Amino acid sequence: MGTTFTIGGDLEVRRLGYGAMRITGDGIWGPPDDPEAAKAVLRRVLELGVNLIDTADSYGPEVSENLIAEALHPYPDDLVIATKGGLRRTGPGEWPTDAHPDRLRECCEGSLRRLRVDRIDLYQLHRPDPQVPLEDSLGALKELPDEGKIRHIGVSNVSVEQLERSRAVVDVVTVQNRYNLADRRAEDVLDACDAAGIGFIPWFPLATGDLARPGGPLDEIARAHDAKPGQLAIAWLLARSPVVLPIPGTASEQHLKENVAAAGLELEPDELERLAGAA
Ligand SMILES: NC(=O)c1ccc[n+]([C@@H]2O[C@H](COP(=O)([O-])OP(=O)(O)OC[C@H]3O[C@@H](n4cnc5c(N)ncnc54)[C@H](OP(=O)(O)O)[C@@H]3O)[C@@H](O)[C@H]2O)c1
């Protein structure tokens, strides 16, 4: 199993990233209770060798990007920060879509400012906007690499058909969709990414649902490896395809350590089969 993946042909990242959505207040709204602790987690992310951080302008909003810059700027050369645009925030837990071309440009400018960078490594369309032709949203993003504002383009929450339409407009280097052991509705999108060598960033990677119940399939295999069910969920994702880049999110240094350690967990082929079959 390869331990790294190269995004867009030139950004080599270790195959376990960090999702920075959970370092905000409840409902991914406002500042966290303890901003210093959140910044300590971010510094620990780098100390543990992680060099891919996923965020979005909408996390907080603005809180996650600001904390990343406060904790980590100036950034090490090999750190890849992926952010997203195309949503608005109207309150805790509310995420209306707005991927109009002008709005996407505005989102990108805000992220550049908050992250304190001249160019964003990976800029992702957070979600296709049903009110805006996908080609128009991507048409706006297409101009940004030429202007030196972003390096690569990713999409998120897309179907296979939307991915193909996106690829007709821009070079899509990553797809970020909800996918985990217990929720594999994006299987066809992952297969399409695998076939095209596109990075697949599964969000909500730790969900194990019922599979982790005492006596369930995860529980048994976890005990055999002296591991936690969530670690198995990560190890399974990493084994699923070499293009998979999990980004588990946590505000806890202890959980972060566990998640990073999961990348070193080797599951036997029969264990992987049992896990896949159980889901
Ligand atoms: N593109 C999109 O639409 C989209 C949507 C959602 C998320 N995302 C991205 O995906 C990332 C991951 O998704 P997610 O945060 O929703 O899901 P997740 O990583 O599967 O789960 C995070 C939750 O699990 C807990 N957790 C983390 N590590 C743990 C451990 N070792 N043991 C027990 N609990 C643990 C966290 O709580 P603690 O803080 O207590 O550890 C948190 O509540 C986000 O940070 C974000 O960057 C993208």
Textual characterization of the structure:
With 279 residues, this protein is α/β, with parallel strands linked by helices. The chain contains 10 helices and 9 strands. Strand 4 (52-54), helix 2 (63-72) and strand 5 form a beta-alpha-beta unit. The mean pLDDT is 95. The protein binds NADP nicotinamide-adenine-dinucleotide phosphate. NADP nicotinamide-adenine-dinucleotide phosphate (NAP) is lined by residues 19-22, 54, 156-157, 176, 203-207, 230, 247-252, 255, 258-259.
What descriptors fit this protein?
single chain, 279 residues, alpha/beta, 7-stranded parallel sheet, two-stranded antiparallel sheet, 10 helices, 16% strand, globular, binds NADP nicotinamide-adenine-dinucleotide phosphate
Write the layout of secondary structure elements.
Layout: E1 4-7, E2 11-14, E3 18-19, H1 35-47, E4 52-54, H2 63-72, E5 80-85, H3 101-115, E6 120-125, H4 134-146, E7 150-156, H5 160-169, E8 172-178, H6 187-196, E9 199-203, H7 217-224, H8 229-240, H9 253-262, H10 269-278
Parallel strand pairs: 3-4, 4-5, 5-6, 6-7, 7-8, 8-9
Antiparallel strand pairs: 1-2
Helix pairs in contact: 1-2, 3-4, 4-5, 7-8, 8-9
Bound molecules: NADP nicotinamide-adenine-dinucleotide phosphate (NAP).
